[in-house]
Design goal:
heterotrimer; B: about 260 residues; mainly alpha; 11 helices; C: about 300 residues; Serine Threonine Protein Phosphatase 5, Tetratricopeptide repeat; 2 domains; 14 helices; about 65% helix; flat
Chain lengths: ~325, ~260, ~300
């Protein structure tokens, strides 16, 4: 059986400028495969070429060179679109329709027969957690609700491959969790999911494999663990009722604030640090993993080009506010 | 294929109706009522003519404005708001999108014109208390107005397939004005010589001939367009629309939706 | 879209555009020929200049030019169709000049063609005079308008006194051509003479700035010259017939007895001929629209009337 998505040398170049056209390379020739049943994360900063790739796959823009096949069908084959679902970045829909009307419209276009339409629309809306909005026009929807409608239309026709462009952006922590759950359940149904994100942790918890894109060039493809193994993880341990020197040389950095002391330790030395703390009769308050970011990954790869974050683009955050600050499971495990 | 076009057309129609496009009918109704009452009282023997001239002119102008502004928004708005991304992610071909959008707006305009036509007849009934056989000729004039509006829609779609919305509006409006003077353009071409003549002739034929679709003043005097003329004008409008839409599709088919 | 699919749609579109453009031309022409021909509809639409002025929203100059072109077009078309009714010429010219009162060509041209007898003009010298007088009111410094006024008085209305007056008034204007005085004097003294007419048309021909006016003057001159030739030939034909008792078979028959040295040619270089009624005429009467046969003095006709 062939791979779900096969990309062979796909590239895109725009010409910019009014008088003198200069080429701007949005995507270097890309070779990549996504296997069936896989959750594949497509990582990169804003402007790295993620959306360009996904738009090329969806036929919204046309490649300068190269080709791609989805489910062994050429990306231009209209039959291909009956078998894939797509969520664009920050989706927006017709102002004056309600969510069920919009989904019914898309169901019609996807060729879902009239008998099944209503049931499919209901199922999809429930699956993305939209209830009680049947009479509300889409122009009154919040950004997060629109994102859910977008997800609903992407899975409406029960596609084999689902392509999601930044599915978690614009969502609150609960919404992010729900989207993660949705992706997980799609995987359990045997679907192939390709989604893009600029937040490593989103990919970490879900993906079988990830690809990292930088400035239109594919940097690496592999398992998340392989990717992050090289990055020295760090933990922040917060405690009280013990002197700051309790951790001795284990602490890379110590900070006192109020009654608490926060120390940063290397992930590998966390157990030793916790034991030291227990010996000193300190009271553990929290252990927080300091998230590895793509930026850090590139930095640690020793890439000189990795001077990321052009001023006009949001930088990858060292610890984004979107990630929950407590890794509760890990704390519980360690506290035993 | 045709089904998808119809679905898109239906959605366009629904969107237009909910966007309160048909509210122009309120203004139209007020205009008709006002004219009917006013001229019904003055009654200088031309109330019928005034109602017809006013009604059909309003039908044409309102329709043209709707066709222009909504027609231009049809494609550009979908790109700007990125609604098109999700649409094209479904098994919809781009030409189906163009055809569906066109059919939807043409349908909206036809419904709008139908309702206005009823208004004109109601006002005529009010001032004259009867309808004469001459009033049937109005239908031909109204039909030709709808043909005009459909052509404007196609032209607006063509321009909006490559120009920015504002420029597309400017181009379409310019073409509307020039098209209304198309006979003069033909006359100018007739006066010229050599290459200029050919160029002017080409321009005169390329511009939609709105003047020959305008029967408002003759309808006011009870002179209708004959069936042969109506058939020829229909064929003209159909061919013009197909050409403009083919142009729009040819451009749109190659366009990168950045 | 795949390249294959896009390619197919692209070709289909191109074919549709080409066929469509051809269809547009075909149906446009068919519809135009099927449309009821109504000049009022085509050229006038609104008959009150003042209303049009308001409707123009400040673009009256442009619309005036449009109406002026329509006047030329209307005249040309009616003329080409050998139509005799130029009933819309005066109203169109009125609209054009009302919209742009400085459009002097419209007064000059309009007056000449309004005044001439059908089919070469509308045969409305009075409205021509009214038009040109309005033009003079609006453009008092333009001596050419006086010239045209005098011309119409002299040539069409045969009112030589008014003509002389108009020329004299025009001559007062700074920059007026010196022959305005000459014209005024010759109008006063020799108003009805053919020589005066010839002189006036010559001046018109030489001074006209507009092709149509110059062509018109040329036709007048040509017709006048041909008329003189034909008149002589008629006399010769009458004389020949009186001498031999039968009409000449052709003009060549007049050369041998010595009436003519050689076969005469008209101003366009064509030979004159004898028509079915035995009268001298030109090869192409269309080239001489102002040729007039005076039936009372024509010797051939006079002979034919004799039993």
């Amino acid at each position: 059986m062939s791979a779900a998505i096969e990309i062979a040398g796909l590239s895109k170049q725009y010409s910019v400028g009014f008088w003198r056209k200069r080429p701007r390379i949005a995507l270097q020739p890309l070779h990549m495969e996504v296997q069936r049943g896989e959750v594949f994360g497509y990582l990169g900063h804003n402007g790295a070429g993620k959306t360009t790739t996904l738009k090329l796959l969806m036929g919204l823009i046309f490649p300068t060179a190269g080709s791609a096949r989805v489910l062994n069908l050429d990306i231009g084959d209209p039959a291909m679109k009956e078998r894939i679902g797509f969520l664009p970045e920050q989706p927006y829909f017709y102002d004056y329709l309600t969510a069920p009307e919009l989904l019914t419209y898309f169901a019609q276009l996807s060729g879902i027969n009239a008998g099944n339409r209503e049931r499919r629309v209901r199922t999809a809306l429930i699956r993305v957690g939209l209830r009680g909005i049947d009479r509300l026009q889409l122009r009154k929807f919040s950004k997060g609700m629109l994102q859910r409608v977008g997800l609903a239309q992407a899975i409406l026709h029960d596609p084999e491959v689902v392509i999601l462009d930044e599915p978690m952006s614009g969502l609150d922590p609960i919404g992010r969790r729900e989207v993660r759950d949705l992706i997980q359940s799609l995987k359990d149904d045997g679907k192939t999911i390709l989604f893009s994100t600029h937040i490593l942790s989103d990919a970490e918890s879900l993906c079988d494999r990830v690809a990292v894109l930088q400035k239109g060039r594919l940097r690496v493809v592999g398992r998340v663990s392989e990717l992050t193994a090289s990055v020295q993880g760090r933990m922040e341990v917060t405690w009280r009722d013990a002197p700051a020197e309790a951790l001795g040389g284990l602490a890379v950095e110590n900070r006192a604030g109020g009654d608490c002391i926060r120390s940063v330790v290397l992930e590998a030395e966390l157990d030793a640090a916790l034991q030291a703390l227990r010996r000193a009769r300190g009271r553990l308050i929290s252990v927080t993993p300091i998230r590895r970011s793509l930026e850090q990954y590139f930095l640690e790869q020793g890439d000189t080009e990795t001077n990321l974050g052009r001023d006009n683009e949001p930088r990858l955050q060292f610890q984004t506010s979107e990630t929950p600050p407590f890794d509760t499971e890990r704390i519980a495990e360690l506290a035993k | 294929m045709i089904r998808r076009v119809l679905y898109i057309a239906h959605n366009t129609f629904r969107e237009a109706v909910r966007d309160r496009v048909l509210y122009n009918l309120v203004i139209f109704a007020l205009l008709m009522i006002g004219a009917a009452i006013l001229f019904g009282q003055i009654s200088v023997g031309i109330e019928r003519i005034v109602i017809i001239n006013l009604g059909l002119s309003a039908m044409s102008i309102f329709g043209a404005l709707i066709a222009m502004f909504i027609g231009i928004g049809l494609v550009s708005k979908e790109i700007e708001k990125r609604t098109l991304y999700t649409l094209l992610a479904h098994p919809v071909r781009r030409w189906e999108f163009i055809a569906g959008k066109f059919a939807g707006l043409a349908g909206t305009l036809a419904v709008n014109a139908c309702l206005m036509g009823m208004g004109v007849y109601a006002a005529l009934w009010y001032v004259a208390h009867r309808l004469t056989s001459g009033d049937v000729s109005l239908l031909g004039a109204m039909y030709c107005i709808v043909l005009q509006l459909v052509i404007i829609t196609a032209v607006a779609l063509l321009f909006s397939s490559f120009a920015s919305p504002v420029m597309a509006a400017v181009y379409t409006f310019a073409l509307f004005v020039i098209g209304s003077f198309d006979q003069d353009l033909h006359a100018f071409a007739g006066l010229a010589h050599g290459a200029t003549r050919w160029l002017a002739m080409a321009a005169a034929y390329a511009v939609p001939n709105f003047a020959s679709l305008n029967f408002i003043s003759s309808a006011a005097h009870g002179i209708g367009a004959g069936p042969k003329l109506l058939a020829l004008n229909s064929a003209y409008a159909a061919v013009y629309c197909v050409t403009a839409l083919a142009g729009a599709t040819a451009v749109f088919e190659r366009r990168n939706l950045k | 879209m795949s390249r294959v699919h896009r390619g197919r749609v692209g070709i289909a579109c191109r074919v549709a555009i080409v066929l469509g453009l051809a269809g547009v031309i075909v149906f446009s022409r068919a519809a135009a020929s099927a449309a009821p021909h109504s000049d009022a509809e085509n050229v006038l639409i609104v008959s009150s200049p003042r209303v049009i002025h308001r409707l123009c929203l400040g673009y009256s100059g442009l619309i005036a030019d449009l109406y002026w072109t329509r006047a030329v077009q209307y005249f040309g078309r009616t003329h080409a169709e050998r139509g005799t009714g130029y009933r819309l010429l005066a109203p169109i010219l009125t609209i054009a000049t009302e919209l742009d009162p400085k459009l002097t060509i419209a007064y000059e041209y309009g007056a000449v063609f309004l005044a001439q007898k059908p089919p070469e003009g509308a045969g409305e010298p009075e409205s021509a005079v009214a038009l040109i007088r309005r033009g003079i009111e609006q453009n008092p410094g333009n001596w050419r308008l006086y010239y045209t006024l005098g011309f119409i008085y002299g040539m069409e209305l045969k009112d030589y006194g008014s003509a002389a007056e108009a020329f004299a008034q025009g001559a007062q204007i700074p920059g007026a051509h010196p022959w305005m005085r000459v014209l005024s004097a010759s109008m006063a003294e020799h108003g009805g003479d053919p020589e005066t007419a010839h002189y006036m048309w010559t001046q018109m021909y030489q001074s006209a700035t507009e092709d149509m006016l110059r062509n018109n003057a040329e036709q007048h001159l040509r017709s006048a010259e041909a008329q003189v030739d034909l008149s002589r030939l008629q006399h010769m034909i009458a004389a020949y017939r009186a001498e031999t008792g039968h009409p000449p078979a052709s003009l060549a028959a007049l050369v041998r007895p010595g009436y003519l040295y050689r076969l005469p040619k008209d101003p366009t270089g064509q030979y004159y001929r004898i028509d079915a009624h035995g009268r001298a005429t030109v090869q192409h009467p269309g080239d001489f629209p102002f040729l007039e046969i005076d039936e009372k003095t024509d010797p051939v006709l006079a002979m034919a009337r004799k039993p």
